[in-house]
């Protein structure tokens, strides 16, 4: 497990540089706000006595010991980045920022964080469940199970309103009646966005 995580850290340099460049381009007033908001973590199973920062609910899609890191920058816009390693190779994942911290089950993280909340929950209305009103970080893994994504939105998180990144079984749908849906929750990373 430590070896996998150290490889993630070694491979993080280029992504971090690209992330910082993107953050500076979209949020030039606050380039110093670029920071790692979640230390590199390894996915594990839930432990009630010592809740992990990253938990897997589907060991096939997100094996125990797989690694991840989340980056975020604020300013006039928000940039969020996700790097993963050791997941199922050649697979398309959905990933979104959620309202609550991770828990024993995938539902603990609550619904997607929305800048303008949909009065109807769960939200499947494309007027609310879309990549401009939510943070969507969908990615595909390579032959080694590694992947990355970043998203830019024209708003900042409300204080205490965004607490996790959830990885879902498949890519996110934008279709009416299922907008924002990406299948069962495969894993969760607790992140203190605000």
TrEMBL record:
Gene Ontology molecular function: metal ion binding
InterPro entries tied to this protein: SOD-like_Cu/Zn_dom_sf, SOD_Cu_Zn_dom
Domain Superoxide dismutase copper/zinc binding stretches: 76-188
Pfam families reported in the protein's UniProt record: Sod_Cu
Keyword Signal attached: yes
Domain of life: Bacteria
UniProt keyword terms in alphabetical order: Signal
GO biological process: superoxide metabolic process
Gene3D superfamilies listed in its UniProt record: Superoxide dismutase, copper/zinc binding domain (2.60.40.200)
Alphabetized SUPFAM superfamilies for the sequence: Cu,Zn superoxide dismutase-like
Secretion signal span: 1-29
Family note: Belongs to the Cu-Zn superoxide dismutase family.
Stated name of the protein: Superoxide dismutase, copper/zinc binding
Organism in which the protein naturally occurs: Frankia casuarinae (strain DSM 45818 / CECT 9043 / HFP020203 / CcI3)
């Amino acid at each position: 497990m430590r070896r996998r995580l150290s490889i993630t850290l070694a491979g993080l340099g280029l992504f971090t540089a690209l992330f910082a460049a993107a953050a500076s381009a979209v949020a030039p007033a606050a380039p110093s706000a670029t920071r790692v908001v979640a230390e590199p973590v390894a996915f594990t199973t839930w432990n009630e006595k010592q809740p992990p920062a990253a938990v897997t609910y589907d060991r096939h899609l997100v094996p125990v010991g797989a690694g991840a890191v989340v980056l975020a920058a604020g300013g006039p816009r928000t940039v969020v980045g996700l790097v993963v390693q050791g997941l199922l190779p050649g697979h398309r994942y959905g990933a979104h920022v959620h309202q609550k911290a991770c828990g024993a089950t995938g539902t603990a993280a609550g619904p997607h964080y929305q800048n303008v909340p949909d009065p109807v929950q769960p939200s499947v209305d494309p007027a609310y469940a879309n990549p401009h009103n939510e943070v969507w970080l969908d990615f595909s893994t390579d032959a080694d199970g590694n992947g990355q994504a970043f998203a830019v939105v024209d708003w900042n998180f409300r204080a205490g309103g965004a607490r996790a990144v959830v990885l879902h079984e498949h890519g996110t749908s934008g279709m009416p009646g299922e907008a924002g849906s990406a299948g069962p929750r495969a894993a969760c990373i607790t992140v203190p966005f605000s």
